Amino acid sequence: xxxxxxxxxxxxxxxxxxYNPSENVTVDERLYAFKGRCQFRQYMPKxxxxxxxxxxxxxxxxxxxAWIMQIYTGKPSSGTREKNQEMRMVLxxxxxxxxxxxTCDNFFTAYSLGVELKKRI
Length: 121
Known about the structure:
Elements: H1 2-14, E1 24-33, E2 41-43, E3 51-60, E4 66-71, H2 85-93, E5 101-104, H3 111-119
Parallel strand pairs: 1-5
Antiparallel strand pairs: 1-3, 2-3, 3-4
């Protein structure tokens, strides 16, 4: 049900594939401040804005242009937390890239992610 509420905005966000980023791409999470009512509003105590909507973002490091963004809508409907979610997000975000340098912070970093990205070169 959560996907149905985002179907129009999700198509808009995937339209960003038209832009070709430079050789350096950064993957990170971003919290856009939002205090209204929303099923997938997140609480992140270490961020300046504590409440908001969480996005996964892949940006071109040279121009700071967001190449692709995905909205995090919370736990799957099964109710169990997804394992290796960070790895899946990075791989989804850089799916169309070959020969690029991918940079991400320690939240996403894992040995298995490095091995998988190495296979895709």
